[in-house]
Design goal:
Largest sheet: none
CATH superfamily: Fumarate reductase/succinate dehydrogenase, transmembrane subunit
Strand content: under 5%
Radius of gyration: 18 Å
CATH class: Mainly Alpha
CATH topology: 3 helical TM bundles of succinate and fumarate reductases
Mean pLDDT: 91
Low-confidence stretches: none
Order of helices and strands: HHHH
Oligomer: single chain
Shape: elongated
Number of strands: 0
Distance between the termini: 59 Å
Length: 121
């Protein structure tokens, strides 16, 4: 029996599921808030202002982007492992490569998204 509990494969598995659940939670919230258009523009606009126009929501958006980018990078790693013979032998290197892709895409996005919280207009 092969066991990788606590190693890169385990954490890739855990983080992939958590990021997927985070994205699913956002999609459910987005469906509900978009559905509010049916109750009129006042209800919709009030909900959007209340839920999304504050610093906590801005940080939540950054967490959402992190989940999306990680889930994508790790998903590409999984595709490589599934379709490239011998890739299972370099799982650790592929996981670190997925993290490199994640950081290269996420850090600039987080900077741009969070900058308005620290810079006065």
């Amino acid at each position: 029996m092969v066991s990788y509990r606590g190693r890169e494969g385990y954490w890739a598995w855990v983080l992939h599921r958590l990021s997927g659940l985070g994205v699913l939670l956002f999609l459910a919230l987005h469906i509900v808030d978009t559905m509010l258009v049916g109750f009129g523009p006042e209800v919709y606009n009030h909900t959007i202002e209340t839920l999304y126009r504050n610093p906590v929501a801005r940080v939540g958006e950054v967490v959402l982007v992190a989940a999306l980018v990680y889930h994508t990078a790790n998903g590409l790693r999984l595709i490589v492992v599934d379709f490239w013979e011998g890739a299972d032998l370099i799982q650790r290197q592929l996981w670190y490569a997925a993290w490199a892709v994640f950081l290269a895409l996420f850090l600039p996005a987080a900077f741009v998204m969070l900058r308005p919280l620290f810079v006065r207009a």
